[in-house]
Design brief:
The structure is a single chain. The chain is an alpha/beta fold. It has two domains: 7-179 and 359-385, Glycogen Phosphorylase B (Rossmann fold), CATH 3.40.50; 195-357, 3-Layer(aba) Sandwich (Rossmann fold), CATH 3.40.50. The chain is 43% helix and 17% strand. It contains 16 helices and 14 strands. The strands form two sheets. It has an eight-stranded mixed β-sheet, with helices on both faces.
Length: 386
């Protein structure tokens, strides 16, 4: 190890809740890294209206949030390269793809220092098909060079590692999951008269909410008999909420489906505390933080294979649903047929799973070993495949 504390710059698309689960993962990882005191972290990303409201959640971490010029989808922030050059960290860790952050990282890398890239599921097949033309252009102009130049590419699980290889990248890959900060041990009252199934996340087509609403409309009578309602919480992206609400009306399900908007901090915690089960009917994920959160609150969850958490199904902590209306309908009926003891057992297994495999101290220790290896301070970690 060097005689001084090495520094790492973490580059994120948005230094705000606009990065959704990605923000939660990077923030928690960075705070734990600062606690372990092996590396000196700093964060640079793009600014948005709500960035200031999120600053306190980063503690004493140095944050640079830059205003965007032009289309937000690209996130052009002309001062980013200059700040990276001035900070000159020993290592750069870039989170996310297809934005100006990749260009800025490429410019910084001309100094000959290494960087790591975490795609966060953005090389998965569904994600590549979404806005396909834009991503093909971006790949030619800068993203392929950015990815090929990485000293290591970070995959959240085996499925993402396979997607990275399928994209054609030959870089070393480290496989390290996201983590979760455990709330105080809690219990769920499954015997209450009113129960609700919770979805929490972005309102985006890839999340499978259209299929969920159609499936829910099929089992409205069963849901009503069991006192079940569906609560959809999250922030609207590209106007998708209005389409979902219109579908809910067409399906005659407005009396049992509610859209409650985004929830953060204590308000989000209350949603989990009051829920009886959780669902993520996604078509594409890296490793969803919302499912880890639901498990940490002892909630039984319904997930599709695209959520990339097969260990949850194997451990009996999740109910698997095929990513179509029929598969989701079947999973909903399964949840609603369970008694309180059965639901509690599934939730308890979820809590044990995150306690054993998804706590931040162990995860950050693995990432620090990758940083050490990339910088030449240590041997190749077991989580790295070359």
């Amino acid at each position: 190890m060097p005689d001084r504390q090495p520094s790492v710059g973490l580059v994120v698309p948005w230094v705000s809740r606009a990065s959704s689960g990605l923000l939660d993962a990077v923030r928690s990882q960075t705070l734990e890294m600062a606690r372990q005191d092996h590396y000196l972290p700093s964060v640079i990303g793009l600014d948005k209206e709500d960035s200031q409201a999120d600053r306190q959640s980063w503690g004493k971490i140095e944050i640079q949030a830059l205003r965007v010029r032009g289309p937000r989808a690209f996130g052009y922030a002309p001062g980013m390269s200059k700040i990276l050059m001035h900070q000159n960290p020993d290592l750069l860790h870039v989170h996310g793809l297809w934005m100006y952050t990749s260009v800025a990282a490429l410019r910084w890398a001309r100094r000959g220092k290494p960087y790591i890239v975490s795609p966060h599921g953005m090389l998965d097949p569904w994600a590549l098909r979404n806005s396909r033309l834009k991503k093909r252009i971006s790949a030619v102009l800068y993203e392929d060079r950015h990815l090929r130049g990485a000293a290591c590419v970070h995959a959240l699980n085996d499925a993402e590692a396979r997607a990275i290889r399928a994209y054609g990248l030959k870089n070393p890959i480290c496989i390290i999951p996201n983590g979760i900060e455990l709330p105080i041990e809690t219990t769920v009252n499954y015997n209450k008269k009113d129960r609700y199934l919770l979805y929490l996340g972005r309102l985006h087509p890839k999340k499978g909410l259209r299929m969920l609403i159609k499936a829910w409309s099929r089992i409205r009578k069963t849901a009503a008999e069991g006192g079940w309602q569906l609560k959809i919480a999250g922030w609207d992206q590209h106007g998708h909420q209005s389409a979902l609400q219109a579908l809910t009306e067409r399906c005659h399900a407005t009396s049992s489906i509610s859209f409650v908007g985004p929830r953060f901090g204590e308000a989000k915690a209350r949603l989990f505390q009051e829920a009886s089960a959780f669902i993520l009917p996604s078509l594409s994920e890296g490793l969803p933080m919302s499912v880890l959160e639901a498990w940490s609150w002892r909630l039984p969850v319904v997930i599709t294979p695209n959520c990339n958490l097969p260990e949850g199904v194997k451990a009996g902590a999740a109910i698997a649903a095929e990513p179509d209306v029929e598969g989701i309908t079947e999973a909903l009926l399964q949840v609603m047929s369970m008694n309180a003891c059965q639901l509690d057992a599934i939730g308890a297994r979820g809590r044990r799973l995150v306690e054993q495999q998804f706590q931040w101290p162990h995860i950050v220790e693995q990432m620090v070993r990758v940083y050490d290896w990339v910088l030449g301070f240590g041997s190749q970690p077991a989580c790295v495949a070359t």
